[in-house]
Design a protein that fits this description.
Blueprint: H1 4-21, H2 24-36, H3 41-51, H4 57-82, H5 87-90, H6 109-125, H7 127-130, H8 133-145, H9 151-184
Subcellular location: Cell membrane
Protein name: Membrane-associated phospholipid phosphatase
Domain Phosphatidic acid phosphatase type 2/haloperoxidase: 59-169
Length: 185
């Protein structure tokens, strides 16, 4: 299969984002969101805060577990396996405006953590937890805006984060069921 057309489309979408949205004011907004997602900090802090509240303890712990699973799968397995360079390293006329390291691009770690947390918060808390998808989407978009990820890296991050969170959620539910059945016997 020839991926050349796919990669050209990926790059073309980035240039379209730049031409449609790039401005000084938007730079500040996107920088806010991209920094919010650095190292999954906002999601880790959310998980810790929720874990400290008895009513939301399970949601907080599950969110932290989903973040850990996403980091392991995305950063330790997929990034080195796929080894895709970042857009600013490959595309002409693009500079590394965020001062990033030259780690691999696929999948987006910011997006993986954001969507892992948003999925878990939605499953555990419901509609109010689903509000986490708003900053998650802005964080993901900011990564394309700054040419540190291709659109396919973002899609990969959404899938990786969602699948990891779903697996953690299902495993946790099964573990709770086993504990309950053991307790009843």
């Amino acid at each position: 299969m020839d991926f050349k057309v796919f990669f050209q489309l990926d790059a073309r979408l980035l240039y379209m984002i730049e031409s449609a949205f790039k401005s000084g004011a938007m730079d500040h907004v996107m920088l806010f969101f991209t920094r919010m997602g650095d190292f999954g900090f906002v999601w880790i802090a959310t998980g810790i805060m929720l874990a400290a509240i008895p009513k939301y303890r399970k949601a907080g712990i599950y969110t932290l577990l989903a973040l850990a699973a996403g980091a392991i799968v995305g950063n330790l397995v997929l990034k080195p396996l796929i080894a895709r360079p970042r857009p600013f390293m490959e595309l002409q006329g693009i500079s590394n405006t965020l001062g990033m390291s030259f780690s691999y691009s696929f999948p987006s770690g910011h997006t993986t953590s954001s969507f892992a947390a948003a999925y878990m918060l939605t499953r555990c808390i419901g509609k109010s937890g689903a509000l986490a998808y708003v900053p998650a989407a802005f964080i993901a978009f900011s990564r394309m805006y700054f040419f540190v990820h291709y659109p396919s890296d973002i899609i990969g991050g959404i899938i990786t984060g969602t699948v990891c969170a779903h697996m953690v959620y299902e495993a946790s539910k099964k573990s709770e069921e086993v504990k309950r059945s053991d307790h009843l016997q």
